[in-house]
Design brief:
Helices cover 43% and strands 13% of the residues. By secondary structure, it is α/β, with parallel strands linked by helices.
Length: 304
């Protein structure tokens, strides 16, 4: 016998329960991994949902490496102001401490996004997924693996290739760390590298070497499968990004090779282009793309 389809109110209750579970998960991990001088206030790392009463679509936004949901709040609030319902999940190992992050694998980040999708499904029939930096890689992964779940995907500054010589030796360093630990010489391992974030009030100040290894593995998996992407996409790249190679976005776009894929460059000198004044230019590109997915939506907003 087929299970009855939950009512709108029932789905709302399910969504609230799922979000509550994620918030409780965060509180437990926050307490377990709190690190004085590195862990940020709880409001920085807590997942959140901005729910419109009658949204045309829902948008899932995924934050980047060493960041937290607060990183994409300005983006989320912009979309919410346009009538969308927006959910921002917290990736495993984030919003707590670098020590926590150093034990995580990208499969756990995928699971974090999966749970976020389940939450958004309870209040929106149609969805778009987007992300910034590592979050963009995770958004592309989801769009490739679950094309029927989304109307489109937005990738901003996905780290297909990092800048800086040091990142080229991450795998070697990671291998050395493992050997050192196995030989009982953990004190000789270099598990973290200094991080100089654009948003120090949000991001960790120390980057786990393990984290970079996981991002590289994720992006290789994504790049190898990009040609199978079946939904519209918007690829945005910072032209003078000091952390991600400026050719990353273009290479992703060319690999997708679809008529409904769009590529835009933002001329800015920092990696973080989704916060502050520069974000307005980025969000305008996002809005234009969403209008192509939901051409009837701008008219509806006039009476929202």
């Amino acid at each position: 016998m087929k299970a009855p389809n939950p009512t709108k109110e029932g789905r709302g209750v399910i969504g609230k329960n799922l979000l509550d579970q994620e918030c409780q998960r965060f509180k437990r991990e926050y307490q377990a991994h709190f690190l004085n001088g590195e862990t940020k206030p709880k409001n920085i790392g807590e997942p959140f949902l901005l729910r419109n009463a009658s949204p045309k679509a829902g948008i899932l936004l995924v934050h980047g490496l060493m960041a937290a949901p607060e990183e994409v709040r300005q983006w989320a609030q912009f979309l919410y102001s346009k009538g969308y319902t927006v959910h921002v999940p917290r990736l495993a190992g984030h919003g707590t401490s670098p020590i926590d992050l150093s034990t995580r694998h990208y499969g756990e980040w995928i699971e974090s996004v999966d749970r976020g999708i389940d939450i958004l499904k309870t209040c929106c029939k149609r969805m778009v997924i987007g992300g910034f930096s590592t979050g963009a890689g995770l958004a592309l992964y989801q769009a490739i693996q679950n094309p029927t779940a989304f109307d489109g995907v937005i990738s901003i500054s996905a780290p297909l290739k990092f800048k800086g010589v040091s990142t080229k030796f991450v795998k070697i360093l990671h291998a050395w760390n493992q050997v050192a630990i196995q030989l009982g010489m953990a004190r000789l391992a270099k598990r973290y590298a200094p991080n100089h974030p654009d948003n120090p009030q949000i991001n960790y100040h120390h980057c786990p070497i393990q984290g970079i290894v996981e991002v590289k593995a994720l992006m290789k998996k994504v790049y190898d499968s990009l040609s199978t992407l079946k939904i519209p996409s918007l690829i945005i790249q910072g032209k003078n990004d000091p952390k991600v190679d400026g050719q990353s976005g273009l290479k992703i776009f060319q690999r997708i090779n679809r008529m409904d894929s769009h590529y835009r460059e933002i001329d800015f000198h920092l990696h973080g282009i989704i916060r502050g004044p520069i974000a307005k230019e980025v969000f305008q590109e996002v809005e234009t793309f969403l209008n192509t997915l939901y051409p009837e939506y701008p008219k509806a907003l006039a009476t929202h």
